[in-house]
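ingest -> validate -> predict -> emit
validate: passed (alphabet ok, no gaps, 366 aa)
predict: started
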Amino acid sequence: MKLGFRKKEKAEKRKKSAFREWTDSILFAVIAATLLRFFFIEAYAIPTPSMEGSLLVGDHLFVSKMHYGIRSPKTILQIPLSHQKIWGTEIPSYLDWIQLPQFRLPGFTSIKNNDPVVFNYPMEDEYPSDLKTFYVKRCIGIAGDTLQIINRQPYINGKKLDNPENIQSSYYVSADGPIKDRVFNRYGITDIFPANNGYLIHTTQTKAEKLAALDFIREVTEINYAPEAPPGRTGFPDLPDLNWTVDNYGLIYIPKKGDRIAMTPENIALYDRIITQYEHHENGEIRGDTVYMNGQPIYEYTFQQDYYFMMGDNRHNSEDSRFWGFVPKDHIVGKPLFVWWSISPDGDLFDIFTRVRWNRLFTSIE
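emit:
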């Protein structure tokens, strides 16, 4: 019998270096975060006061992409965890060489009147639709609705729409003398502008009434932009003889997928951007009062997707659908769930603890 040494069945694996382990961990984290961000939930920050007092500048939200249906990626040549630009630069973080068809999976629910919604701002033609700037507004009108605003009150299909609890409007305030900042701060009033020996403020009715009860306040008057009032005039639709304002607007019909309408001059003014931009017709154009498809005039049009009408809760300080029109369904991003962090932009930059709005952490969004 011949004796010998048995060979090991498997060679011992080489131990990974610390650098390799860190690299693998970071790569895994980036891939996981990218997939989570693309398909399930994403964090957003509120940069403007258009939704005050429901959402405040400095609020950070978690937004569900599953509620209204997950969108498939369209722009795939993109640096992970970036949006339009490489962080801290003006260099684009994507290439639009490949644009995939976009699909939407069924969601848990559909958008309803008064729902807060995150969407891509549709007017940014310089970006692919999935990389346009994120906006959050309240959906006042859904596809198939007829909308009108009379003296600040929205009506949907002829019925009053319930206003959000913390809806804001403009008020003119005058007093016996200058009003100190601490007075406004006491009531959480931050949008303040000098006006006619007084102040123009944006706030809720409740806060305005508390301000009016102070001994040194002379007047607190809510502002209403009547028809033909140039300061409150809207920009959509772009018709020179239209006298709509932010407080007196409409009637307009919000298109629904499958609707078929006649191409009258009035309808063309309302829906021209839908036909030429949002419905992805390569050869759709408008010449004068006529719509052309593939060089041929058409006199009726069938909408290819649903549309929505958005407004901010800060009704006199919000650039929304009253100024630029409808939001297509393929621009809908998701449903805001709750505020996970909130920090005031005012105050000492380094005194973070006094700037944090502790009472807003983990509050739901209604």
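The chain has a mean pLDDT of 87.
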